């Protein structure tokens, strides 16, 4: 049994979407980062960087932070949603792209374009432009492919919840038709719709 510590954010949703896709039982612990739950001493024992998501696997006592590591662990434990052969490394490449670029840069776009609009023209231009560039890169990768590496893997599940905040990033998905079609393919999956609402309902998945 997995204990999942999470909140209603893209990084948290990556893991709840994967757990729903795997169809394995898990306990949800809501860590309200708006109320500083992430700094509670008990939570810091399993997530010393004071961020969600984190898991504890009750089967072996392992605790993990960092969504990319958690996704790899769960996918390997259950032998699902991992690309095979050469595509395995392509999947890793795009998982790392999400962890090192798509997530952090779009997080900055949310900060300046959505929550602190008008405080810095420079930052708005910088992260707005970077968001456009990242979507363009993703659009190229998805040309001729249903999913990032062909089959549906954890790379898709890691990227999707960040793309689901396209409105905050001032992105029109219709400008990136391969991304839009990929997005709709994922957004309509029942497991994704369920995982998106963990730990609680905030909004339906936005549609382009
Ligand atoms: N690289 C980390 C990033 C996790 C992260 O940034 N989590 C945010 C929510 S999406 C958080 O917990 N923020 C609380 C804080 O910074 O105090 C991962 O992918 O797990």
On the 0 to 100 scale, the average pLDDT is 98
H/I helix tally = 8
Small molecules bound in the structure, each named once: glutathione
Beta fraction of the residues?
5-15%
Q: Quick one: CATH class of the largest domain? A: Mainly Alpha
Radius of gyration: 17 Å
Strand order of the largest sheet: 2-1-3-4
What's the end-to-end separation, in Å?
36 Å
Order of helices and strands: EHEHEEHHHHHH
- Give the biggest sheet: 4 strands, mixed
Domain GST C-terminal: 84-208
Pfam families: GST_C, GST_N_3
Domain GST N-terminal: 1-82
Organism: Marivita cryptomonadis
Question: What's this entry about, in short?
Answer:
The chain has 208 residues and is an alpha+beta fold.
Give an overview in words:
With 208 residues, the protein is of the alpha+beta class. It has two domains: 2-80, Glutaredoxin, CATH 3.40.30; 86-189, Glutathione S-transferase Yfyf (Class Pi), Chain A, domain 2 (Up-down Bundle), CATH 1.20.1050. It is 52% helix and 9% strand. It has eight helices and four strands; from the N terminus they run βαβαββαααααα. It has a four-stranded mixed beta sheet with strand order 2-1-3-4, covered by helices on one side. A hairpin with a 4-residue loop joins strand 3 and strand 4 (62-65). Helix 1 packs parallel to helix 3 (67-78). The longest helix has 30 residues, at 86-115. The radius of gyration is 17 Å and the shape is globular. The mean pLDDT is 98. The structure holds glutathione.
